Amino acid sequence: MTTTTPGRFDAAALRARLERRDALTVIDVRTPAEFETVRIPGSVNAPLPLIEKHARQVAERLDRDVVLVCQSGNRARQAQQRLAGAGAARLHVLDGGVGSYETAGGEVVRGRSRWSLERQVRLVAGFLVLGSSLAGLRAPRAGMLAGGVGAGLTMSALTDTCTLGRVLSALPYNRGPRARTPEEILDQLTAGSPA
To answer: In terms of CB atoms within 10 Å, which of 29, 102, 118, 180 comes out highest?
Structure first.
């Protein structure tokens, strides 16, 4: 069953469109490292920070239906809002991300295995809370860090953004094999060539 909700695509609908080779651009907004780990064939990797900095230039290159993809849908929705604000139309978000596409029987390309950005955020936030709680047993003020992490996670949920994720995405681990320039990514969008 395929979705008819404007602005959203379910995995079966995307799979059907790709199998028919319909005019469609799939943009993966995850980090280059996540993209290297697993991706939908033919998708273009344009990480969310790049879209945020170059939304107008990206929007100018989108002349057909676009499906935005990430791990869970959160970053893809942020990219959709940013690109729509820059004038792009026909933007859709893949419900459930790359994992739902693979579960629906869609073909994926696998590379070097790396942790998703969401998993990294959970690890770092958990470590900070656990560490500050344990340190708070010796120095009560150290436990305040756990409150700060909790406040940050609350704001992240309320604003549907993640500052810790943005910081982690800039680390070398998340850059992938070779950092591509914004111009290379924008040229790939214009050409519509596979990644």
So the answer is: 29
